[in-house]
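Researcher: Quick test of sequence recovery. Tokens follow.
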């Protein structure tokens, strides 16, 4: 079982402005945790800090993966150790096809997990795995030969991110507002992909400000995130309460 643990995590921007103000959170494989908060509450900063984005400085606290302190590890080291971040707005990489990107990423992870020894996946095996996952996740096969996210629709970008998750097989996936910009059909496909992947080998942190995606990915734990802090925790019923009443009462708690 994999475990991601945040201990008293504080995160600041490069100019020193503190955004995340002491977060304690523990996520295990097989669990879905939802962090819900209004715009500007620091949710994406939390996601980027977990993934190791260099623009966000961890000023206090720790990030542990399977008991190992990765607070000072680079983004590539964290990815190789088993962390995955699905972006709210996935970047386009002109000149790099989806197939080439995924093959390089898969082989980099295999090398890291093999103690630094090259262990590339044979091309026929990779192709079979890729096409099988594309069909399963309803990702058009023609995207495999196109440049990553270049000219993709919002739904195509998010489906390809779930495809990346399926191919890389991380231990913990952080989904930063992955429902942003999706129509209902694309949302159902993405949610189905997440549901199929979460299990004994994968836990997920779903970051959102709407309950909409949680109609399709039922969380085990919901954390209300306001003003850079977790101000309330509960089960799936807490998401329904937020949808009905909004964040106002917790915003008052965060300020006080």
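Model:
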């Amino acid at each position: 079982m994999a475990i991601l643990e945040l201990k008293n995590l504080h995160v600041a921007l490069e100019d020193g402005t503190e955004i995340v103000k002491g977060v304690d959170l523990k996520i295990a494989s097989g669990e879905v945790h939802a962090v819900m908060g209004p715009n500007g509450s620091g949710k994406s900063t939390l996601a980027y800090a977990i993934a190791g984005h260099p623009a966000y400085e961890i000023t206090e606290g720790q990030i542990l993966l399977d008991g190992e302190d990765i607070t000072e590890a680079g983004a590539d080291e964290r990815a190789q150790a088993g962390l995955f971040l699905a972006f709210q707005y996935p970047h386009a990489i002109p000149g790099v096809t989806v197939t080439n990107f995924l093959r390089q990423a898969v082989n980099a992870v295999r090398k890291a997990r093999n103690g630094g020894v090259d262990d590339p996946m044979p091309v026929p095996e990779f192709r079979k795995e890729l096409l099988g996952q594309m069909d399963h996740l309803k990702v058009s096969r023609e995207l495999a030969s196109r440049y990553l996210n270049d000219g993709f629709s919002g739904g195509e970008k998010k489906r390809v991110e779930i495809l990346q998750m399926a191919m890389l097989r991380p231990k913990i996936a952080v989904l930063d507002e992955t429902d942003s910009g999706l129509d209902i059909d694309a949302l159902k496909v993405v949610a189905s992909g997440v549901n199929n992947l979460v299990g004994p080998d994968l836990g997920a942190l779903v970051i959102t400000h709407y309950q909409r995606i949680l109609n399709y990915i039922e969380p085990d734990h919901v954390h209300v995130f306001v003003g850079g802090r977790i101000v309330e925790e509960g089960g799936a019923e807490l998401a329904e309460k937020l949808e009905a009443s909004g964040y106002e009462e917790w915003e008052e708690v965060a300020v006080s």
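The longest strand covers residues 18-28.
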